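chain below, 117 aa
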Amino acid sequence: MKRVLIVDDSQFMRLSMKAMLERNGFEVVGEAQNGKIAVQKYQELCPELVTMDITMPEMDGLEALSAIRKLDPSCKILMISAVGQETNVRRAILEGAKNFIVKPYKEEKVIDILNKL
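prediction:
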């Protein structure tokens, strides 16, 4: 069972993602509502996978991705955002994200990608 940290500023999206992941055999070990908390929780919880929103207060997902990669270059982060602009997708991949999904997403696609990471 893969351990996952969910990062999104929307409580509804975190709850929705958590239910979807648990339904598909993943263990949600933590949640964070911004990138700053995500970096702290990554260090505390050592998840195998992270789902990361981009647009968040205090520290956005791209900054958090970069900070987590400095701590753990082998981290597996899936960026999930309503902001699907090509520049954000390119930057996320260049920063080390393993994949990028645009909201709204299909459950099967998210699960398929996370299973492959």
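The first strand starts at residue 3 and ends at 7. The CA atoms of residues 9 and 24 lie 23 Å apart.
thats it, cya
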